[in-house]
Amino acid sequence: MTDAALATVARVDFGSCTLLHDDGTLADATVRGGLRGRRKALGNTVVVGDRVHVERSADRLVIVDVEPRASAFSRRAAGTRPLQQVVAANVDQVVLVASVDAPPFKPGFADRVIGQAHHDGLPAALVVNKADLAPPAESRAIVDDYAPAGVPGFVVSAHEGTGIEALRGACLGRRSLFVGHSGVGKSSLLNAMEPGLELLAGRVNAKTGKGRHTTTAAWLVRPEPGLELIDTPGMRGFGLWDIDADHLERAYREFEPYLGHCRFSDCRHEVEPGCAVRAAVEAGRIARLRFESFRKLREEIREEGGGY
Fold first, then answer.
1. What is the pLDDT of residue 170?
2. What percent of the chain has pLDDT over 70?
3. Which is nearest to 13 in space by CA: 210, 288, 301?
4. Max Cα–Cα distance, the chain, nearest Å
5. Does the pLDDT of residue 252 top 90, yes or no?
6. Which fold has domain 72-231?
7. 19: CB partners within 8 A, 6+ apart
8. pLDDT digit string (tens) for 20-63?
9. CA of 20: how far to CAs of 25, 116, 129, 141, in Å?
């Protein structure tokens, strides 16, 4: 590593970056050519959350090195070839934002995000937003289904402000990556958690020319010491990375106490006699919604190619 000054990457745009200095100021920076790929693209070399070494060259800042990552949250990049996309680095937790309605809750999407977080060694939390648009029992039922997986749940309404303080408290002292399906109100939720946050986002987003309310790339803000929030664009889908169909069960944390206790060592948890996982479902120790989602997702992975 070099002796250059250190900063945190707050945003990446087409090969240039916005840096967040330790004193809270922002600055634009380019990236040294040696860190780029053959096509001069950054790829996964520099991502939001990276701790980087920066030098001044003439009138500009240049990222010359990247510190080793303590953690990273990945997904499978869009396209026919299996390629990794690192969404953010040095994350402390992944916060999945969903809604009961408008749009309806999508178990498959939720389980992909939460499963990837567990696979990447990161704790996950579930936020059910728009609680004002659904009966309380429906929101609570979703949260309860994920409790056996060790996923804390929050029922909130960004519109009415309910549940916001509890969620904010769960993010203090952590760098939290917020991920959500398009339309769930993730950016509105972040602004409800931290009034004025969109002004900080606007500063980070200034050079893109996009409106404040348009999240076009992941961005990191630090509204106060000890609170770091990463917003991401709304996603239509989420591809798992490095999780194949045969090992998907490990991404479902509530399955762990029962794995290895089936009658057959190669049990697929379908119709085999003596399946400990299915017995746990019948006993209510694993939510049926999660189990059915697991079965469906396993088949989808196989159809997609299986190994990623």
1. 97
2. 90
3. 210
4. 71
5. yes
6. Rossmann fold (3.40.50)
7. 7, 8, 9, 10, 26, 27, 28, 29, 52, 54, 61, 63
8. 999 999 999 999 988 876 666 688 999 999 999 999 988 889 99
9. 6, 27, 29, 39
Q: Kindly state the tokens that stand for 248.
A: 């998907």
Give the whole-number percent of the chain exceeding pLDDT 90: 75
What SS3 class is residue 54? strand
Q: What is the dihedral of CA 251, 253, 258, 264, to 10 degrees?
A: 0
Is the separation of the CB atoms in 109 and 238 below 8 Å? yes
* pTM (global) more than 0.85: yes
Contact indicator for 68, 98 with CB cutoff of 8 Å: no
Q: Give the chain's count of helices (H) and strands (E).
A: 7, 13
Which is more confidently placed, 215 or 234? 234
Q: Which fold has domain 245-304?
A: Ribonucleotide Reductase Protein R1; domain 1 (1.10.40)
Of 36, 78, 173, 5, nearest to 14 (Cα)?
36
CB contact at 8 A, 103 and 97? no
Which H or E element spans position 308? none
* Average pLDDT estimate for 80-90: 92
**Average pLDDT over the chain, rounded to whole?**
89
The two domains 5-66 and 72-231 share their CATH topology (first three levels equal) = no
Rounded CA-CA distance 219/85 in Å is 15
